[in-house]
Amino acid sequence: MAKKTPLLEVTDLHVKVEGKNILRGIDLTVKAGEVHAVMGPNGSGKSTLAHVLAGREGYEVTKGGVRFQGNDLLAMAPEERAREGLFLAFQYPVEIPGVSGMNFLKSALNEVRKHRRLPELDAMDFLTLAREKMRLLEIDEKLIQRAVNVGFSGGEKKRNEVFQMAMLEPRLAVLDETDSGLDIDALKIVANGVNSMRSPDRAIILITHYQRLLDYVVPDKVHVLAHGRIAKSGGRKLALELEKKGYGAFGQSDASVAA
Amino acid sequence: MAVSSDTVKTIESATGGDYKYGFVTDIDMDFAPRGLNEDIVRFISAKKDEPDWLLEWRLKSYRRWLTMTEPRWARVRYATIDYQDSYYYAAPKPKELLNSLDEVDPELLRTYEKLGIPLGEQKVLAGVAVDAVFDSVSVATTYKEKLAEEGIIFCSFSEAVQTQPELVRKYLGSVVPYSDNFYATLNSAVFSDGSFVYIPKGVRCPMELSTYFRINAENTGQFERTLIIADAGSYVSYLEGCTAPMRDENQLHAAVVELVALDDAQIKYSTVQNWYPGDKDGKGGIFNFVTKRGACRGVNSKISWTQIETGSAITWKYPSCILQGDNSVGEFYSVAVTNNHQQADTGTKMIHIGKNTRSTIITKGISAGKGQNTYRGQVKILPGATGARNYTQCDALLIGDECGGHTIPYIEVRNPTAHVEHEATTSKISDDQLFYCMQRGLSAEDAISMIVNGFCKQVLMELPMEFAVEAQKLLDISLEGSVG
Ligand SMILES: Nc1ncnc2c1ncn2[C@@H]1O[C@H](COP(=O)(O)OP(=O)(O)OP(=O)(O)O)[C@@H](O)[C@H]1O
Ligand SMILES: [Mg+2]
Q: Which residue in chain B has the smallest CA separation from A113?
């Protein structure tokens, strides 16, 4: 991969959901090694952006495009995007009854490894790796042996998402409000996990409502998403400013979203 | 059904969602004339050189059948069957009398090899004795001598009629009477072949016994008859599998299986049913109208049914247990899959007669495409069944919006000390679940397979080890193309 190609390049992205314009011209460039924070009021389109990047159905791209590692991201199937190294930590992780977390993650990891032309991990090697990451995120092995997310507390679900990210070692991780619902100690653990993932050839997009997370995971850039557009971009200070002043300056209201 | 790792490979290497066993074997066949009348019944009986009592039993059944009408209470739909338009006997022409497996027609050996069931003397499956039934007759049985050393009789039904007439006469029709129901009565008149098992007192059968049923000939019904007797204190695990060629017409399969467990005996009966299900538009496929019933006649006896039903256009079967002996136990574990236009109306009957009898029913119905899947089950506690217990759990899983899953329990309790529990759930594989899996790098098919296997785990665990993997693969294949 040429150093100069950005990892992610979103250009003038317009997206409709159920006939409603939600994203109205997003421009965002993320380079390898960077951490970006995306903030913005409820309903401004943050999760929509994350879902469109991950390839969820039901989103109509009416204009613009996305390149990921130089390729047309929107032309790829969701599982291809994942195998190419795009990871989404869900705002609302999904329960999958009957499927153990271990089994789920082992299959997922081996799909990704196959795609990267790495040998598949056998049960023992997988367990060794999983234990290492569990230690990092202070996750009890019992939790991962249970059915995926079934009966997990809100905080456990979020921690499980970060654990999966650590296992899958993506090129680009989009964390959608992974800090929401975490107690102080859990927040530090998760932040620690995210920091351990920082590397020169990986990028992270943190979608968050709280400046607090950014105390632990210091971003290179902060963006404000409002009205379906990046209304403002800046450095670390922008987050502190928002915390003080709120989003009033960006004129967000329900009426303006619906328009 | 298929048993070896070879089959697994065959399945894996095949592409697309097509039925993998749809080929036809070109072989010289002996047919009875088309249609059904007393002469045909006599013809079949004569072909098998049967004693008079058995011919009389067949004729009695046939006459009874003429007075009966097809049951239509099941939640399945199909056009009227013309019973005169079918052949009731089809057998590969024997070259000569067989003395050993090596004399089986090579064309037949090749057929079974293709199906993953090697029969040749050098190649038999380790630890599994197989009886291979081709259309109306049994063509080979493996490991016979080895089993005979333990006093175990495992042979084709026709052979048992000749060599074990007392046992056959004593038990035939003792669990499923000749007059039981339309299809069982038809079977009693025209049954062709099947397997016979006798496990002597106190013997634990050292290997899995297995029958592989193959329909090959066109316009031919298959009416096999299986009888398993576990004498006091014995144990046997038996498995049946089945496939058929792809044909545009519907073919009828109306089998009868009777199990008898005496004092302290245990029978574990597993089925992996993979008859041709018909094409995507619902054309062709097997009508699987089967009567299976076990009698726990002795005290402390146990009969356990496990079925994986992935094939057939229509499945109509209710493997049941009659719990006569005190403390006897009946179990029914079922996975039934309906995809495309398949229909299944299946379940069980647990009839509690003896004291402290216990039954467990665990069913998993999976519907995809336009498939319709009904669980129909009866739990009946008779007045004498003091302390009887039943636990029933019926789970339905839907994939897509055009399929259906239904649960129809009948519960009748006539003893106040009985304890009956029934739980039922219906769930759907949601788009959210699929997306979540795909976001982690899994294909939609793998995601469904994983969710389905998780859903069925409780039942798959009941299968003998050698077959569990095979059953999982079959589930995957049956559900191929169930997501867009
Ligand atoms: N499937 C849908 N049908 C209709 N509207 C939708 C759908 N999905 C999203 N929307 C709308 O799109 C807008 C943006 O939603 P989105 O989830 O992207 O917001 P968000 O910025 O992530 O908000 P939050 O901070 O509350 O998580 C909202 O008004 C939401 O109601
Ligand atoms: Mg959101």
A: B441
- Residue located nearest, by CA, to atom 17 of ligand 1: A47
Per-residue pLDDT at A18: 93
Residues with Cβ within 8 Å of residue A209, at least 6 apart in sequence: A39, A177, A180
Assess whether the C-beta atom of A42 lies below 6 angstroms from ligand 1.
yes
* Helical packing angle, B52-66 and B182-190, nearest 10°: 150
Inspect the interface and report whether the beta carbons of B433 and A96 lie closer than 8 Å: yes
| Contact criterion met (CB below 8 Å) for B354 and B383 | no
Contact by Cβ (8 Å): A63, B421: no
pLDDT at B139: 61
**Which residues in chain B are closer than 8 Å to A105, comparing Cβ atoms?**
440
Model confidence at B14: pLDDT above 60: no
Q: In this structure, what token pair is assigned to residue A128?
A: 């060794």
Distance (Å) of CA A144 to CA A106, A164, B148: 11, 10, 50
A44 lines ligand 1 (CB under 6 A): yes
Q: Is A45 helix (H, G, I), strand (E, B) or coil?
A: coil
**Contact call for B446 and A111, based on CB within 8 A:** yes
Query: What residue has token string 């006649």?
Result: B297
Q: How far apart are CA B45 and CA B50, in angstroms?
A: 5
Q: Which residues contact A216 (CB under 8 A, 6 or more apart)?
A: A187, A188, A191, A192, A195
Classify the C-alpha dihedral B25-B26-B27-B33 as positive or negative: positive
B366, B432, B439: which to substitute to probe chain A, counting the most A Cβ within 10 Å? B439
Q: Do B436 and A93 touch (CB under 8 A)?
A: yes
A90/B440 Cβ within 8 A = no
ipTM of the complex: 0.94
**What mean pLDDT do residues B54-82 have?**
91
Phi and psi based region of residue A149 (left: phi greater than 0; alpha: psi -120 to 50; beta: remaining): left
What is the spatial distance between Cα B211 and Cα B241, in angstroms, rounded to a whole number? 6
DSSP lists the bridge partners of residue A203 as A172
Whole-Å CA distances, B194 to A235, B124, B228, B323, B474? 79, 20, 11, 25, 24
Query: B458 forms bridges with which residues in the sheet?
Result: none
Enter the DSSP assignment of A58. Answer: T
Chain A positions in Cβ-Cβ contact with residue B455 (cut-off 8 Å): 97-98
Check: CB of residue B311 under 8 Å from CB of residue B275: yes
| pLDDT at residue B123 is higher than 60 | no
Q: For B163-209, how does the pLDDT look when each residue is reduced to its tens digit (9 = 90+)?
A: 999 999 999 999 999 999 999 999 999 998 888 999 999 999 988 88
Weakly modelled stretches of chain A, pLDDT under 70: 1-4, 251-259
SS (H, E, C) A152-220: CCHHHHHHHHHHHHHHHCCCEEEEECCCCCCCHHHHHHHHHHHHHHCCCCCEEEEECCCHHHHHHCCCC
In this prediction, residue B7 carries a pLDDT of 29
Residues of B in contact with A77 (CB under 8 A): 438
The sign of the CA dihedral B335, B338, B339, B342 is positive
Ligand nearest to the CA of A19: 1
Give the CA radius of gyration of chain A: 18
Tokens found for residue B441: 């790098």
Tokens representing residue B175 in the block = 């669990």
Q: Which tokens sit at B421?
A: 């529990």
Output the furthest CA–CA distance in chain B (Å, rounded): 68
pTM of the model: 0.83
> To probe the interface with B, which of A51, A94, A146 has the most B CB atoms within 10 Å?
A94
